[in-house]
Design goal:
The chain is an alpha/beta fold and about 325 residues long. The chain is built from nine helices and ten strands. It has helices at about 15-25, 35-50, 70, 110-115, 130-135, 145-165, 185-195, 265-275, 295-315, and strands spanning about 5, 75-85, 90-100, 125, 135-140, 170-175, 200-205, 225-230, 250-255, 285-290. The longest helix is centred in the middle third of the chain and has 21 residues, at about 145-165.
Amino acid sequence: MLETTSVGSFPKPDYLVRARNAVSKGEASPESLRPLEEQATREWIRIQEDLGVDILVHGEMERGDMTTFFAEQLDGYGVSGLVRSYGNRYYRKPIIQERLARPHAMTVDFYRWTQSLTARPVKGMLTGPYTMCDWSFDEFYASRRDAVLALAEIVHQEVRDLEEAGARYIQIDEPAISTRPAEIDLAIEAMGIVTDGIRATTISHICYGDFARIYPRILDLPVDVLDLEFANSQFANLEIFRRPKFTRKISVGVIDVHSHRVESVREVKDAIKRALTVFDPEQVWIDPDCGLKTRTVPEAIDKLRVMVEATREVKRELGLA
């Protein structure tokens, strides 16, 4: 009840950023990154344990962009030159050039190693098939549906392997769903393939968007927990979920990841209590709006500290501890 967690990414420490830049310039080998990625992951696991977060994430120290990381490991994908995503942020957009296939598991080894660092559960973290397609160029498949469903089969293979490796929680991020409400049925069909026969708790994070246009249909997305932002929009979307009643578990974003300002404990407590006017406590997890990778390391730690402290105080005040 009111479990605390994070959406996925954390900021990379300076030593890892410098090393990644050196690799991109050809000044160091890609293999030189792995010890530094493991060092940074150890640090973030320890930070989360010390803060008292309930369900941990590995922080994605080995990843750059959430689609390119997977595209580079799949047969059939190429990668474009730099494409501007927002602000001054750029990424190399994947290109589907041939029939897609997964030659090997993409995240299982790193998941298994990370889980060995802690007794607390660590989420398996994947990008969903709808977002993988929506954020790629497609030069092979006859339709978007064909591409999405091909990716769904591949993501299902990865989810199955994570479950067999012991993952109790597997998050399949679909931030693109809310930007194309007309394709919600396709996203639901694809997620049905991804989670078919899976017993682990499945979560899907959906980013900023017009939730009114996909609710209540989004309740048919076949996952156990929907993870949505609320803080950045100052809970403007909350009333949408009052009727019809929200029937799944929900991870409520109470920390604005697009602001440098660290929220006060009082602000976050008020946000949690506001969410509990719509959702039952048994339904609710608490987390930031999105990944914290755009914040500095001290900002991310301070925001997580406030989130955990506020959640503990609310649980005590409401007799939920």
